[in-house]
Specification:
about 300 residues, TATA-Binding Protein, 3 domains, alpha+beta, globular, single chain, five-stranded antiparallel sheet
């Protein structure tokens, strides 16, 4: 891949085509090290973006760096303009695409809120180990380090920002939360068995286009176990003695997901497995499990 750390694809640049300029390569590559040495020799200093990426062990700034777009981009006219950077900031705050496995928009129907509104809040809180907000009386919990309030009166999710509750539009999260809180009916035992999607009672659902999405995770972390571990730790993940690198995420207090990275070998390409506590079969529908995995994947990839 001839893409520089800054995100520029040198394959589509005429300067590269005619041999006037070579790609900087990913920040962790030997190509980047050689480019920095050449820039230092010819210009007296390296590209600030490339040097920063290499210093921080980052391959591609737009994909891998939690600070992108940073001052190295915004205070320079190279390689992006202001409009592009503003677009990046805006779209990075939109959340995951609200699409089901078929690519159709996810719609949260009113009956989900009706169903939850008829539940006893204290029962749901006890079964899920979530909290009841003292001020509003609504369910409150942490979803991957984000504090979420389930407002059954306004029929929306709220997220705490700078000490204040703000309404959020996250259909995939909303559907998952409502499915879980509406379905749970007791304190199910946990820790008995860890299973894959093929072991669930509705395993047939997770076939074909409904397979758990892992391609983007493999592309990002397949050769970067340290980055994989760091992404999990950032979301509160607990390291696990499994595979070549692994951690446990807890998007809901009693719904763990296990992420396992297997590095490439002479015989096999890198792979990522996502496992569950067997109790997930009782508390989430197959579509909600798929949505939950997609949400966790998104936050692992997005550095936010």
């Amino acid at each position: 891949m001839a893409t520089g750390a800054c995100g520029i694809n040198c394959d589509v640049c005429q300067l590269n085509l005619v041999g006037q300029c070579s790609s900087c390569g990913p920040g962790r590559s030997d190509l980047a090290a050689g480019k920095i040495a050449a820039q230092q020799r010819i210009l007296g200093h390296p590209c600030a973006i490339l040097a920063c990426a290499r210093l921080n062990h980052i391959d591609y700034c737009p994909r891998d760096c939690p600070s992108f777009p940073c001052d190295n981009f915004s205070k320079s006219n190279y390689p992006y303009g202001r409009g592009f950077l503003d677009m990046q900031r805006r779209r990075r705050g939109l959340g995951p695409p609200a699409l089901d496995p078929s690519g159709r928009p996810i719609e949260v129907e009113a009956f989900w809120w009706d169903k939850l509104a008829h539940r006893q809040v204290d029962h749901v809180a006890n079964f899920t180990l979530t909290d009841i907000d003292g001020k509003t009386g609504h369910l409150r919990f942490h979803f991957l380090e984000r504090e979420i309030l389930v407002d059954t009166h306004a029929r929306c999710l709220m997220e705490k920002e700078n000490g204040e509750w703000e309404k959020i539009q996250r259909p995939m999260l909303e559907l998952t939360v409502l499915d879980y809180f509406s379905r749970i009916d007791c304190l199910y035992p946990m820790g008995r068995k860890i299973v894959g999607s093929e072991d669930l009672s509705d395993a047939h659902y997770f076939t074909g286009r409904n397979r758990l999405p892992t391609a983007s995770l493999r592309a990002r972390f397949g050769a970067d176990p340290d980055g994989f571990a760091a992404a999990g730790a950032r979301l509160g993940g607990i390291p696990q003695q499994m595979a070549d690198e692994a951690f446990r995420l807890t998007p809901f207090p009693r719904v763990p997901l296990y992420y396992l990275l297997w590095l490439a070998s002479e015989e096999f390409a890198p792979s990522i497995s996502i496992l569950f506590d067997q109790s997930i079969d009782k508390v989430l529908s197959p579509p909600a499990i798929w949505c939950l995995v997609s949400l966790c994947n998104y936050h692992l990839l997005c550095n936010i």
